[in-house]
Write a sequence for this structure.
């Protein structure tokens, strides 16, 4: 959605020569500390435009009617740079390059693809700080958080570089008559669409398996956070990935994303983002039965705290896990636990200890960043105003100031803890996707499960208790694709990742990603 973004015309963003474009890319690439990046931004007379990466080259989309989108720095509200809003005709050209590359890439050996992925992960490792710096500037997250996410992007490539070397398919004899086995082949050209909350981390979570399994891609990052995708294009070129295997087009959802998803030349879509957008993608592809869809959508995840978890031995862990699940990355992770339910026996104790713990651990500008955009700030503020109107108790935080313009000092929202919120309030139902958590008491185990499952979403859940039998008993009844017990966001990249209910379709990770990116035929061979 573009409501807060000014779309400026081409005449206001001079395209410059190709040489200038490459020169700017080199300048950005050299900014590998926060100081260098900030002084580079300040030195620019007008914001530069980022470029697409198509067929192995950086380029602005050729269509003369291309418009440009302003991109702002969340921590200051300053205009950072512009991105082209790639039009359908140029999206189709990028898809054409991916199709051409597919003919050869799909036939490369696993060892060859593995070498390419390893090289990419090594280069990312070498330029870890460059990517972390720009991610933090562009998205609003802290540099510490950005480093964690670049490390995960590195792992995305290294994990799939080895996975494809070791994967095996089973063969079996059926009735002593036929030898039966699965044969897999790359499924084609994919649209890879990612959101603004963990830009590089989630884009590479799609690109790495896609190319590892022999497919090619046109990737589109969020228009709100395109910087590290642009840098990734430069890195892929340096890594020597054959042209066209990965193409990266910049632009908004309604223009660029919609054209990419709907193109009949695209064989599959892997998407992470909001549930409404997931529905739009389903609708626009409804007549293309053959198109594969892997949709990882929103969440409104419960954290269940049983009384024993607040005992002296595990109280510290309980506070730490519940707080990080609620406030990590400003609460802008689809897996965040934004509905906390606490056993009534320890409810008062938990609320009293949780608020000071969060206030000490999540400090704006130090351990917590700004939210990603003005539009998102306004959305979160809307919910906090609703909380005040509904007479919820603000145990921590308050309704942030109204903000109508970008130049008002950045999009900062305090960690906010609400109690006395009705279970039917939009605050308990909607994905706010910000640093806001509700705390509600439960009476017993049945009540806890029923409150946890009372949601259109089914992505993740956190359980806090020392009772091993309860962990299984409750964990297996929660309507959630991923349940973490006494921990949160512990990830092994082979485990199925994805959600139930309105949180998505399909799973990714290890063999589940293989299912997304390969076509399978079963052969029954009788001699
Ligand atoms: N991982 C998650 O669960 C995420 C959830 N959200 C939720 O969605 C809400 C809205 O955020 P948005 O940035 O608007 O998310 P979004 O779902 O619109 O954006 C995600 C990506 O989809 C693209 N996109 C948008 N419309 C499209 C279309 N019709 N066809 C193809 N691609 C399209 C966007 O350009 C972006 O790259 C957030 O406030 C949050 O609640 C947003 C981002 C991530
Ligand atoms: O893969 C992970 O570890 C985390 C993924 C997070 C999202 O998909 C999200 O926040 O959208």
């Amino acid at each position: 959605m573009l409501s807060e973004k000014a779309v400026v015309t081409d005449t206001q963003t001079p395209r410059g020569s190709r040489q200038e474009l490459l020169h700017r890319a080199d300048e950005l690439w050299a900014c590998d500390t926060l100081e260098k990046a900030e002084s580079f931004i300040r030195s620019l007379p007008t914001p530069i435009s980022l470029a697409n990466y198509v067929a192995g080259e950086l380029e602005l989309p050729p269509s003369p009617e291309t418009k440009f989108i302003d991109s702002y720095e969340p921590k200051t509200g300053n205009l950072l740079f512009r991105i082209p809003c790639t039009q359908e005709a140029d999206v189709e050209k990028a898809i054409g390059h991916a199709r051409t590359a597919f003919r050869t890439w799909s036939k490369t050996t696993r060892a060859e693809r593995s070498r390419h992925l390893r090289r990419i992960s090594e280069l990312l490792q070498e330029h870890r700080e460059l990517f972390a710096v720009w991610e933090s500037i562009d998205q609003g997250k802290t540099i510490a958080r950005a480093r964690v996410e670049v490390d995960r992007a590195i792992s995305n490539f290294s994990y799939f570089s080895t996975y494809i070397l070791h994967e095996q398919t089973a063969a079996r004899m059926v009735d002593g008559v036929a030898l039966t086995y699965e044969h897999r082949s790359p499924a084609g050209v994919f649209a890879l669409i990612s959101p603004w909350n963990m830009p590089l981390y989630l884009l590479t979570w799609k690109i790495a398996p896609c190319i590892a399994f022999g497919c090619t891609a046109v990737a589109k990052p969020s228009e709100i956070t395109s910087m590290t995708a642009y840098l990734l294009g430069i890195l892929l070129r340096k890594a020597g990935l054959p042209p066209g295997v990965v193409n990266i087009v910049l632009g908004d959802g309604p223009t660029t994303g919609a054209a990419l998803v709907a193109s009949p030349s695209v064989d599959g879509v892997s998407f992470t983002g909001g549930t409404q957008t997931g529905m739009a993608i389903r609708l626009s592809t409804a007549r293309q039965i053959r198109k594969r869809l892997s949709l990882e959508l929103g969440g409104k995840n419960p954290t269940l705290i049983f009384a024993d978890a607040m005992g002296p031995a595990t109280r510290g862990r309980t506070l730490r896990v519940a707080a990080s699940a609620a406030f990590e990355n400003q609460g802008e992770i689809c897996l965040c636990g934004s509905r906390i339910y606490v056993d009534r026996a320890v409810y008062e104790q938990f609320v009293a200890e949780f608020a000071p713990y969060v206030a000490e651990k999540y400090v704006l500008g130090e351990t917590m960043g700004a939210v990603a955009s003005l539009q998102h700030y306004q959305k979160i503020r809307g919910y906090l105003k609703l909380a005040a109107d509904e007479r919820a108790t603000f145990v921590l935080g308050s309704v942030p100031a109204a903000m109508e313009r970008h130049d008002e000092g950045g999009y900062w929202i305090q960690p906010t803890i609400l109690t006395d919120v009705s279970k039917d309030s939009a605050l308990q139902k909607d994905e706010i996707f910000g640093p806001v958590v509700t705390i509600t008491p439960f009476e017993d185990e049945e009540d806890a499960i029923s409150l946890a499952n009372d949601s259109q979403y089914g992505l993740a859940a956190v359980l806090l208790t020392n009772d091993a039998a309860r962990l299984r008993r409750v964990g297996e009844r929660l309507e959630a694709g991923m349940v973490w017990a006494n921990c949160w966001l512990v990830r092994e990249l082979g485990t199925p990742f994805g959600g139930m209910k309105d949180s998505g379709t399909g799973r990714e990770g290890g063999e589940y990603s293989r299912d997304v990116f390969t076509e399978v035929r079963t052969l029954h061979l009788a001699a």
